[in-house]
Amino acid sequence: QQPVQSPQAVILREGEDAVINCSSSKALYSVHWYRQKHGEAPIFLMILLKGGEQKGHDKISASFNEKKQQSSLYLTASQLSYSGTYFCGPRNSGNTPLVFGKGTRLSVIA
Amino acid sequence: EAQVTQNPRYLITVTGKKLTVTCSQNMNHEYMSWYRQDPGLGLRQIYYSMNVEVTDKGDVPEGYKVSRKEKRNFPLILESPSPNQTSLYFCASSAHPSGAPQHFGDGTRLSIL
Prior knowledge:
The structure holds two protein chains of two kinds.
Chain A: E1 4-6, E2 9-13, E3 18-23, E4 30-36, E5 43-49, E6 55-57, E7 60-65, E8 70-75, E9 84-91, E10 104-109
Parallel strand pairs in A: 2-10
Antiparallel strand pairs in A: 1-3, 3-8, 4-5, 4-9, 6-7, 7-8, 9-10
Chain B: E1 4-7, E2 10-13, E3 19-25, E4 31-38, E5 42-51, E6 54-57, E7 65-66, E8 76-78, E9 87-94, E10 103-104, E11 108-112
Parallel strand pairs in B: 2-11
Antiparallel strand pairs in B: 1-3, 3-8, 4-5, 4-9, 5-6, 7-8, 9-10, 9-11
């Protein structure tokens, strides 16, 4: 079952912050985050492990809330290069493949 | 350079004409998978393979076949393509199905007329 991402789309001005949420109906093992530019392949951003770890990638960080079965991606002081569609992929157990959410389209404008 | 290579990148064909999209990775990854991407639906998994000769259905396997005879290759076969299979297809590989980053190919845009 696909995780639920919110919002579906967001428009930001350069320098603004954004939060993208990813909720799973099942217990979380870890969560992957990917970004896809239009017409390109998705690119790996980070993996969050259970335990509430917060990881960072440039000015992009994420948190993992095992209890809420949710992960959030934080984009701070957004840049034009942050534009794209962000996908989360929760890992629910052992060797089960990732199931990606429908994505959040982020547009950063000058 | 570590990469996942898909061919062709673009293909326009007609209903019923069998086609194969090839996927090859040079990272010695055990896990490979195929996704299709349609507007508003995200990345939906078609088939995946945990290792050589081990394949399994994903969420949308109808109308597709795969094989994994060698570790590096994972071709996607459409025996009798139909217009509803018009989509953007991605192959991905990983050292683990969900515990390691997925490396995606550049995609294959398929149009079935």
